[in-house]
């Protein structure tokens, strides 16, 4: 028997229960893993509270990412004792996820834990950090260097944002961190490496087709009005890596920034990201993310606290990363 958080659908409502499961109840897959750590992301919060249409099968163990040790494998790429990390692939949505002491998944979904990281550090990074690294790679591939000018990170106090700030700072970029709670979160963001803090209200005004050029690059987790505004403020030849829609999935903008200022808008997805790109990103995270990051902007909880944390994260009350220790 092992401990797990199980979501069930009762009369159309999501009901989370802390329970005991057996190995025979785990879904099919080539690799069974003893989970050391999972984490709670915004998507997990929506799934656990039932506030979003995330769950695609019932019952479900949530948790879109985890790190742990292989217990048994029917795939030659993995042996018992191997350390692995999983993010994405619909785990925690349509396949049982990481908020249990054991998980069984497809071998193709796993990545060997990169040299230089332990399981806790891997979940300090998790889906959020992997997404942040993919965004940094997108800016680099668009030619945005530390000499290009200031880079804006929106939703900077969230999981993607905090990792992006730490990565960009370590790589020598000058960072403006956008947050809705500058007085509460400014000190943390400055400690992570932000050069200055920008109140979110500055980007909530309706955007003109083009505005004063302010940003060489941007990593956007918000979408909607904020993304439209920053697109209008991009420097000539600037690039935006967009990976989130916390503010909405609409985009009230025009083609003007793209055709008059040569601005690039690059979408970034971490869920179905190919293995080779994942390995590239994880290797860069192990190399570039400063050790100090793992002591900052990270909280740790047990399974018993997940439901309350899920409610808080959907209300914007959680900053940084929250790990779930199994």
Structure commentary:
By secondary structure, the chain is an alpha/beta fold. It folds into two domains: 2-113 and 294-325, Quinone Oxidoreductase, Chain A, domain 1 (Alpha-Beta Complex); 128-267, NAD(P)-binding Rossmann-like Domain (Rossmann fold). The chain has eight helices and 15 strands. The strands form three sheets. Strands 3, 4, 5, 6, 7, 14 and 15 form a seven-stranded mixed beta sheet that branches. The chain has a six-stranded parallel beta sheet with strand order 10-9-8-11-12-13, with helices on both faces. Helix 1 crosses helix 8 and helix 2 (119-141) crosses helix 7. It is globular and about 60 Å long. The two termini are 14 Å apart.
Question: Secondary-structure blueprint of this entry?
Answer:
Layout: E1 2-10, E2 13-21, E3 31-39, H1 42-49, E4 65-73, E5 83-87, E6 102-105, E7 110-112, H2 119-141, E8 151-153, H3 159-170, E9 175-179, H4 182-192, E10 196-199, E11 215-220, H5 224-232, E12 234-242, H6 256-260, E13 264-267, H7 275-288, E14 298-301, H8 306-314, E15 321-325
Parallel strand pairs: 8-9, 8-11, 9-10, 11-12, 12-13, 14-15
Antiparallel strand pairs: 1-2, 3-4, 3-6, 3-15, 4-5, 5-7
